[in-house]
Amino acid sequence: MSVAEIKEAVNKLPVQERLKLLAELCDWPDDDWDRQMKRDAAAGKFAGLNEEAAQAVKSGKVKPLEEGLAGE
User: Fold this and answer.
1) Contacts by 63-72 with C-beta closer than 8 Å and gap 24+?
2) CA-to-CA distance for 13 and 69, rounded, in angstroms?
3) DSSP alpha helices (H): ranges in 1-72?
4) How is the chain split into domains, by residue range?
5) Which residues, other chains included, contact 72 with Cβ-Cβ below 8 Å and sequence gap of 6+?
6) pLDDT by residue (tens digit) across 9-26?
7) pTM for this entry
8) Dihedral sign from CA coordinates of 39, 41, 43, 48
9) Share of residues in the chain with pLDDT > 70 (%)
């Protein structure tokens, strides 16, 4: 498989899978900030922001992230 084919395949991955791949390739351990963000997310601290973003997508004010990344 060529580098171009690998890049093409990576670009087709969902955002979360691309992030997992990047973390795996770079072997970056979570730092304090990452751990705090994960705790905050698990505690639901971003629920309001997530809902606000979902409404913005539904109303057409913004594009879904996946759509923006597909244009790269």
Assistant:
1) 65/15, 66/14, 66/15, 69/15, 69/18, 70/11, 72/11
2) 10
3) 3-11, 15-26, 32-42, 47-58, 65-70
4) 1-29, 31-72
5) 11
6) 999 999 999 988 988 888
7) 0.47
8) positive
9) 97
